[in-house]
C-alpha cells in the first residue's frame, strides 16, 4: 500500500498548517525530511525540515504515531509547520519527491475504515462534522464519532440474529407449528424493533436541516410583504419590493444566522392564478420551496379582504400541516384592519415586517432549538436513512409472515433486515461505491 501525504489544514492564511503522512514508509520519509534518526512515538518533537537538495524549508513540530496507534492504524507522521500555503506545500512536495503519493480526498479516513479503526457511520460523521451548520449538529455528530450509531446497529442486529437463529432451528426440526407463546415473544421483539427504527427514522427526517442547514420558506399571495420580510431579516435590500403584485418571479435563497443555527431562507413568488407562463413557473417553484423546507412562514395581509388566493394558501398549509412546522403571520398590522381575520384561527403572529421582526426571529429560534434538542439518535446521510427504512419494512413484512406461519419467508425478511441495518456500519458495497463515498470527503481527511 502506498504511503500517502496531504495538507490536512484548510488553505489560506493561518498560523499553523499540518501535513499528514500515512503508510508503511511514513517513518522513513520523516527521517529524510527531518534528518533525525529517531522520533519517539506520540511525542511532539521540534525539528528543522529539509528538502531533497538539503535546503532548509521550515522549523516544525513533528509527531510520529506508530502503527497501529494512529488515526489510520498505519504508521502516521504529522508535520505541524508554519502556516500559509507556501511552507506546507514545500513540505508536501518534498515528501512526494521522497516517494509519497498525494492522498485522494477522504483517503486517510478510508484507510481508518479499511483497517477497522472506524465503521462507516463513524466515517460519515467525520465527513459531516467538517461541514456542519450548527453547534447542535456538531454535538450529535460527535456522539456518532463515539460510536452511538454503531452501537445502535449492533443492538438491532443482535436481536434480529437471535430471532433468526431461533426460528431457523424450528424450520429444520419442528413438524408442527411454533408454540403460540413463542410467536408472541418473537412478535414482541419485532414490534419493539420496528417502533425503535421508525422513531429514529422520523425524528432524523425532521432534523435533516441540522446537517444541511434548515430551510425556511416564506409563502403567501402576492403583495403581502414576503420580500419585505426577507430584506428585513437579512438587513439589506436583497429582493425588489414594490406595490405591484407579482414582483418576485423566482425563488430567492439566502443564508441567515438565527441563534446558533445557520439557516437558508427562501423568498417565493406570490401564489395566485398565474397571469403568464413565467409566473406559472415561479409559482411551481414556490410550491417546491415548501416541499424542500422544514419551516414555512405563511404570510397574510391585515389590510386586505380574505379572498380566493388566501384560500389557496390555507389549503396548502393543510396539506403540509403534519410534515412541516408552520408559522402563520399577519403582516401590515400598522394599517387599519377593515376586514375580519377569523379565517386565520387564533394561532398567528402579528407583524409589521418592515419595522420589527424580532418576535418572528424569536419564534423561529424556539422551533429550531426544539428540533435540535430532540435526543433521539440522528441519521446523518441518505444512505443511513435508506438502510433504516429498508430494515423497518422487512421487519414489518416478517411480522405478518410469522402470524401466517410462513416461517421460511419470515426468515428471508429477517435476514434482509439484518443486511440492511448492518450496511450502516459495514461494507457490503462494492469498491466503487466505497470510493464514491470517501471521495466526497475533504482533501487531507
Ligand atoms: N493532529 C491531529 N489532530 C486531530 C486529528 C489528527 O489526525 N491529527 N484527527 C483526525 O481525524 C482528529 C482526532 N482523531 C484521532 C483519532 C485517533 C487517533 C489515534 O492516534 N488513535 C490511536 C491512539 C489512541 C490513544 O492514544 O488513545 C488508536 O486508536 O490506537 C488520532 C486522532 C481531530 N484532531
Ligand atoms: N404598511 C405596510 N406595508 C408593507 C409592509 N410590508 C410590506 N409592505 C408593502 O407591501 C408592498 C408589497 O411588498 P413586497 O415585499 O413586494 O410583497 P411580496 O409579498 O414580496 O409581493 P410579490 O413578490 O409580488 O408576491 C410594498 O409596497 C411594501 O412596501 C408592512 O408591514 N406594512
Ligand atoms: K409586490
Ligand atoms: Mg416579493
Automatic annotation (TrEMBL):
Matches recorded under InterPro entries: G_TrmE, GTP-bd, GTP-bd_TrmE_N, GTPase_MnmE, MnmE_dom2, MnmE_helical, P-loop_NTPase, Small_GTP-bd
Sequence positions that bind GTP: 223-228, 242-248, 267-270
Residues bound to Mg(2+): 227, 248
Enzyme class: hydrolase
Cellular localization per UniProt: Cytoplasm
EC number: 3.6.-.-
Name of the protein in question: tRNA modification GTPase MnmE
Naturally occurring in which organism (per UniProt): Sulfurospirillum barnesii (strain ATCC 700032 / DSM 10660 / SES-3)
Lineage: Bacteria, Pseudomonadati, Campylobacterota, Epsilonproteobacteria, Campylobacterales
Gene: mnmE
